[in-house]
Amino acid sequence: MCRWLAYLGEPLRPSTIVLDANNSIVAQSLDSSLGAETVNGDGFGFGWYPTDAPAGTEPALFHSTEPAWNDQNLRELTRAILSPLFFTHVRAAAAPPIQQTNCHPFRYENWMFMHNGAIGGWHKVKRDLTLAIDPSLYPNVLGTTDSEVLFHLALTLGLADDPVAAVGRAIRTVESVGHEHDVQFPWQGTIAVSDGQRVWAFRYSSQGRTRSLFHSADVPTLREMYPDAERLRLFGDEAHLVVSEPLSEMPGVWVEVPESTAAILEPGGYRHEPFLAD
Amino acid sequence: MCRWLAYLGEPLRPSTIVLDANNSIVAQSLDSSLGAETVNGDGFGFGWYPTDAPAGTEPALFHSTEPAWNDQNLRELTRAILSPLFFTHVRAAAAPPIQQTNCHPFRYENWMFMHNGAIGGWHKVKRDLTLAIDPSLYPNVLGTTDSEVLFHLALTLGLADDPVAAVGRAIRTVESVGHEHDVQFPWQGTIAVSDGQRVWAFRYSSQGRTRSLFHSADVPTLREMYPDAERLRLFGDEAHLVVSEPLSEMPGVWVEVPESTAAILEPGGYRHEPFLAD
Amino acid sequence: MCRWLAYLGEPLRPSTIVLDANNSIVAQSLDSSLGAETVNGDGFGFGWYPTDAPAGTEPALFHSTEPAWNDQNLRELTRAILSPLFFTHVRAAAAPPIQQTNCHPFRYENWMFMHNGAIGGWHKVKRDLTLAIDPSLYPNVLGTTDSEVLFHLALTLGLADDPVAAVGRAIRTVESVGHEHDVQFPWQGTIAVSDGQRVWAFRYSSQGRTRSLFHSADVPTLREMYPDAERLRLFGDEAHLVVSEPLSEMPGVWVEVPESTAAILEPGGYRHEPFLAD
Amino acid sequence: MCRWLAYLGEPLRPSTIVLDANNSIVAQSLDSSLGAETVNGDGFGFGWYPTDAPAGTEPALFHSTEPAWNDQNLRELTRAILSPLFFTHVRAAAAPPIQQTNCHPFRYENWMFMHNGAIGGWHKVKRDLTLAIDPSLYPNVLGTTDSEVLFHLALTLGLADDPVAAVGRAIRTVESVGHEHDVQFPWQGTIAVSDGQRVWAFRYSSQGRTRSLFHSADVPTLREMYPDAERLRLFGDEAHLVVSEPLSEMPGVWVEVPESTAAILEPGGYRHEPFLAD
Asked: Could you tell me which residue ranges the Glutamine amidotransferase type-2 domain spans (chains A, B, C, D) (predicted)?
């Protein structure tokens, strides 16, 4: 169910990662080696904050129901712009409908959200979880995915004030409602969320066997390890990625994010902390 | 907001009406003279019951987000099949999203439903009305339209047992919830619904100024009026239509359905009765 | 590059083959085991002749740029109709553009055509081959594929009079033009073509290593082999298929069509003959 | 047949013109007052050169087959970027196919081209005109429009060296071939072409009755005329537009480009000269 990546760092032409990496997210759309599904061809999304945008700026979104691998518009767009913070997501849908409102990332004001995974027993719990969304946010739910509902639960439960706590509460709500409906493992997935300045990524599942998640090592360290690597010259010292699966096979570049972890990209670099790990 | 037509009669090649009439529904998609909007280009739908299908058969649906006027698949399909009962709908959306799950007709088991109009103050009442849908039907709501919610309210309130009463109750629910939210005119619209054997059409609005609706005169009568009309030879004696606006300018062919009326097409012919007319 | 199937026999609900077979063509769109590519997600096409249509009737076409695996319209259509002769094709494009005019099957009057394979050195030979199309047919070429050009070459070279000879001449033209441009192996592929009464399928490549092709065994023989097979009851005694790869794993059902062969489905059954086998 | 606009000036958020003008190009897609067709809903295109791009940079293209009026991606994109030179085009197709390869603007290296109008007797002359394209450029023709062929004729006839002369020669070729095929008025239309530094616009038809074309007055002059106009503060002193029809009703802002004229936007401002005016 889906693959994604999040970038934070010096303004970058997104095509560098989205198109040109060996195992780019576009390559993963056609053939993902670590994903739950090999093919992630049920639409995609690209969301970005413009360079030099003040705090609080809304990200821009490009959503399409076409497979990413042959989409011309995605190629054009990611080659033409620069961005210091962007998300890309390729979707493997469990079932129709395939529609733009089901494409990640989702947005609310300056917040952007994407997800790889699933809410267990979705048809049984959808109504109760949707009712738990704040009524003022309810009209903003436009698609049919569990992911969009989780995002709005997190918004309801304080995302803007404390993202780690709010996503934790949203997942606990999913688990609680799921258990009421006899769902054994109500939550599965990795999440990325951003306010335009930082990225919070989460890896957690009720079963403790979550989809893969990796972050990139610091670029200065990598330059020392690979002084001749041409590709590293495309990136600034502050560039960091969180990704569903490694974009290349260079040893040392990609570090797994542990289970039950919140990973944070912020101007000072990468760090992580335990998440729902009790 | 939208134009539609419903046909019941001898099995007919739907293109005869959908494509070939002077003011066909496809022509109306580009230029409707009586509609609230001139252009109905935000997708379309075609739903049909197969010839000789037993009672209880599900209709088949073809939905597209493209404008109907240049859609090749609609042309191909409506020229290749025969059907004794079909609906066609062209959509003028108030706003995005334009997606197949927002295209009419909607379906539940053997029931098919379409609508031209709007629920007033939709963003204010959407949540309350959605909650009034039977929880077992709730997962079947896939789009963002007021029309789909009205259909599921009618299903909740007994559509399968008494269509006229159930649609009446659903509209009264809309009016009641709307008034609670200070919406002056909560309901506007024409509706068509079918179980595969009969068609019920409704014209009603809270303000008493509903979008246009017409039915066709009996074909045998028309043959007497126009003994030389070649086009009439394409239709059987039992052919009847209910349409948002006349498909031609032949005097006597199209008869307006009055305000606050339920119009019924059934094997014996056309009849109508008062609807919410108190 | 693509997978396809062709059916001739008693009128059949196409979903029986297109959707419901174990390794249906829709399943192959997501995961083909014998195809040159695993994923055939760059659009699809379904073309059919109506039941009881007189000789010379045009087939109807449904083309979509969406992947077949989650396309709702294909499911609806193939469940709702009956047809005695239909083609289905799922596409793996070498490159953009992904557009309906590049979806197979192609049509000219009552003729329908589809292809799996490629013309070698396409960019070098495209202009010369397009010029070899009869000028009166030239405006009918609407897409960018090598397949559509081959079809129009075959039409130019007598398809309506002698399909086997005309397709042979068209491929020889491709080989001749390719060799002029130093293309080592100018033709690769399997083809199906129909006039609405019969199906001609071809397996040939300049290198002698053509994409896979199979035909189904006679249904009465299969009934003797598998007297308890429920699925066989869905098919009439005259049902025959030609397919890119087997739709099931039942031994004896699928027989490989040899290299350099023209396979013919006609009312009397299946037969084949050598094709360009010198 | 279509409406378009071209902007050259200080880097601008394109939404200012594309979305926010009273009679914006998106508004014209649904309801054009001066166009040959009222509705321009058969897809659209947006092409732009990035800010600070060196001479010779390729423009980026966004093409969609959806109507512009409800397209979310166009809104997102034109609000998120800045560009000193961009084209927008909304299409009214004479007939299918509606596909991205038929959306303007077209591109070749750093050149961008769009057109409103038609080549007369297109089906009769298409083959001859396509053959007149340089064989090395021939594989770049991907759609079915007359416009794309005219662009490639202009490229063949020296666009990169002398745009005014080359477009003139291309139109004369169209007229010559048209007359050979007994087409009375072979060319109709307005064109815009850019190399990334300047914009050349053309208004000419064989009949001398060309589709409408306007350019904007100098911004400093407009500021003197309308000292209180808030909207003018959004534009720099160098901002110039060429448009199919005025984007507002402010007197003095929009000046008609005469028949048989080449209009040039360049860093120094607007100027025009006679074109094919003999």
From this structure: 2-278
